[in-house]
Design a protein that fits this description.
The structure holds 2 protein chains of 2 kinds. By secondary structure, chain A is mainly α. Helices cover 70% and strands 0% of the residues of chain A. Chain A contains 6 helices and no strands. The radius of gyration of chain A is 17 Å and the shape is globular. Chain B contains 5 helices and no strands. In chain B, α1 packs antiparallel against α2. The chains are: A mainly alpha, B mainly alpha. Chain B: It is a multi-pass membrane protein.
Chain lengths: 151, 121
């Protein structure tokens, strides 16, 4: 029987290999996630420092980070489901760690609140909708194009 | 110093997302991504709180940008939404988007109000 394709790319307990990946020791997986998370977070911070936005302005850096991270998770999960890469720690390190640390949901919602409370309700709504639409389009495009290339 | 605090927050936040996600899934078997929704809401509440603290420089970097940034995720959220739609669970896909955005913004606002209450602003 073939494994069900995961819904949750971080960890999906419906997939036997992911259910068992903390045994015998959880350290390799957790260390890979931790190291990847640091790399992704530093990249997100670097972009936010290089590209600041004024209070009430459109948070371009977080927008670009989140949409590009979604494109990359689409590519990565396609590469992993097509079994091009079989390194056991590829998903924990690159997906859970690097891309999970790079993208952020909390900054997204707090920036929406900040823009709205700075009197820029239009910017807040535009940012809310543009990130959602961009993220879903990017993850779909990354996944579909990668599957097409690899098949 | 900033980079060290960031790295420390992220080094804890990313595996915390993974472990909480596993714990939620182990207790609640569903294709709806409750685990990711839970970490995104919790991280939004905490970041809202940190954002409401006055002059929270190093705390904001460690707990906000580092820990909350790595704990919460947009890539996992959007991939799950795509997968739910691909599996024909369009209602779940839409519910995931609506619940994440509405509860996330609500949690961020509650965090901010909590910080203002605690600090007497």
């Amino acid at each position: 029987m073939t494994e069900p394709a995961p819904i949750d790319p971080d960890v999906d307990l419906h997939v036997a290999a992911e259910r068992a990946e903390l045994r015998p020791s959880p350290l390799p997986v957790l260390a890979a996630i931790s190291a990847g998370g640091v790399i992704g977070t530093l990249a997100r911070y670097g972009i936010s420092v290089a590209w600041p936005h004024r209070p009430g302005g459109f948070p371009w850096s977080t927008f670009v980070v989140n949409v590009s991270g979604c494109l990359l998770i689409g590519v990565l999960m396609a590469v992993l489901t097509e079994r091009v890469v079989t390194w056991r720690l590829a998903r924990p390190f690159l997906g859970v760690g690097v891309l999970g640390g790079y993208t952020t949901f909390s900054t997204y919602v707090v920036d929406i609140g900040r823009a709205a409370s700075a009197g820029s309700a239009g910017t807040a709504l535009a940012y809310l909708a543009a990130t959602l639409a961009g993220a879903v389009a990017a993850v779909w495009a990354g996944s579909a194009l990668t599957h097409q290339v690899l098949r | 110093m900033t980079l060290l605090l960031l790295a420390l927050g992220a080094a804890i936040g990313a595996p915390a997302r993974y472990l909480v996600d596993r714990a939620v899934q182990a207790r609640h078997d569903s294709i709806f991504p409750w685990g990711t929704l839970a970490v995104n809401i919790a991280g939004s509440l905490l970041l809202g709180f940190v954002a409401g603290l006055p002059a929270a420089g190093p705390v904001s970097i460690l707990v906000g940008t580092g820990f909350c940034g790595a704990l919460t995720t947009y890539s996992t959220f959007s991939y799950e939404t795509l997968r739910l739609a691909q599996e024909g669970a369009r209602f779940y896909a839409l519910a995931n988007v609506m619940a994440s955005v509405v509860a996330g913004i609500g949690a961020g606002a509650v965090g901010l109000l909590l910080a203002w209450t605690v600090t007497g602003r």
